[in-house]
Amino acid sequence: MKSDASGARRLRVRVLGSAAGGGLPQWNCRCRVCRLARTEPQRVVPRTQSSIAVSIDGERWALINCAPEVLHQLQREPALQPGRDDRHTPIQSILVTNGDVDHVAGLLSLRERSPFRLHATPEIHGVLRDNPIFNVLAPDCVERCDVALDSRIELLPGLAATVFAVPGKTALYLEGDQVDIGAEGESTVGIEFDVDGRRLYYIPGCATVTPRLAARLEGAAALLFDGTLWRDDEMVRAGVGQKTGRRMGHMSMSGVDGSMAALAEVGIKRRIFIHINNTNPVLIEDSAERREADSAGWEIAFDGMEITP
Ligand code: MLT
Ligand code: MN
Ligand code: ZN
After folding, report:
1. Are 25 and 278 spatial neighbours (Cβ–Cβ below 8 Å)?
2. What is the pLDDT of residues 119-162, one digit of tens each?
3. What number of other Cβ atoms are within 10 A of residue 41's Cβ?
4. How far is 143 from 200, CA to CA, in rounded Å?
5. Is ligand 1 within 6 A of the CB of residue 31?
6. Does the predicted model carry a pTM greater than 0.85?
7. Quick count: other Cβ atoms within 10 Å of Cβ 37?
């Protein structure tokens, strides 16, 4: 059991992937940030898509979200590789926070008959059931566990997690003519870990910080929060798309209605942006935007980052 000098148990978080959907560089993108990631990787460190691993004892791990690059991500993390026997995995559970491709596609690569529990809200399980390709996760191996909003689940022995709704939207591939942006329900959730009074939150997608969410975050030891875009029209300005952050269900970092402003007065010890889109200039180590985030007390997640709140 991992504990500090006082004997308190400590949560360990390992960032497996810190980029938003598409990764960095994105295969078909030549925006400024993607170009720098290819030509000057010391100025823009390449990143894989959004996922974290958590553990309380360093031996048993859970993944939160499962990115398309999961095999590559696991290859970089000895703690997540087979530790004994010919067939073994330290990964006991996977919890997904929405049905987006960047968060579920990696499940298809974990189909080699190692048992684990797959946790999601009933709505997200419904989405996975409607895509029969996910049946490669054999039901006698992978137990699909429904998670009710605001209930505590035992993710690992001795590690509970609470799943709660955050303003978001349905997955892109499920969008119909009408899209309910900012809806709070089972389609987009945040995760709360509370280990002996130290709370850590993982919220990779969020359309707005409601007063209820701000109140929940007050006093947190650490927050990993939606860092998709720096400004709402960034993709339009970069000439790589027509969508705003708002339309994608992601609030921006900067500006009067951005997340840095919305959370400025909330008492949070460590604040870290994750799920960062490849157009976001905060990814450039020497950019003015990075300096602004630094001065506001925000860290920028990178693949391999370890957080022990
Ligand atoms: C998002 O976070 O908005 C999605 O991952 C977008 C996508 O599916 O590409
Ligand atoms: Mn995403
Ligand atoms: Zn790009």
Report:
1. yes
2. 999 999 999 999 999 999 999 999 999 999 999 999 999 999 99
3. 11
4. 26
5. no
6. yes
7. 24
Ligand 1 near 100 CB (within 6 A): yes
Any atom of ligand 1 within 6 Å of the Cβ of 21:
yes
The two structure tokens encoding residue 200: 């850590």
Please state the three-class secondary structure of the chain as a single string. CCECCCCCECCEEEEEECECCCCECCCCCCCHHHHHHHHCCCCCCCECECEEEEECCCCCEEEECCCCCHHHHHHCCHHHCCCCCCCCCCEEEEECCCCCHHHHHHHHHCCCCCCEEEEECHHHHHHHHHCHHHHHCCCCCEEEEECCCCCEEEEECCEEEEEEECCECCCHHHCCCCCCCCECCCCCEEEEEEECCEEEEEECCCCCCCHHHHHHHCCEEEEEEECCCCCCCHHHHCCCCCCCHHHHCCCCCCCCCCHHHHCCCCCEEEEEEECECCCCHHHCCCCHHHHHHHHCCEEECCCCCEECC
Cα(164)–Cα(184) distance, integer angstroms: 9
Task: For ligand 1, pick from 18, 26, 66, 102 the residue to mutate: most ligand atoms within 8 Å of CB.
Answer: 102
274 Cβ closer than 6 Å to some ligand 1 atom: no
Torsions phi, psi for 147 (to 5 deg): -115, 120
Ligand 1 close to Cβ of residue 102 (< 6 A): yes
Ligand 3 centroid–CA 185 distance in Å is 31
**Burial class of 288 by CB neighbour count within 10 A (0 to 12, 13 to 18, 19+):** exposed
Contact 226, 259 (CB under 8 A): yes
Closest CA to 305 of 9, 27, 56, 17: 17
- In sequence order, what are the beta bridge partners of 94? 63, 118
pLDDT in tens, 65-123: 999 999 999 999 999 999 988 899 999 999 999 999 999 999 999 999 999 999 999 99
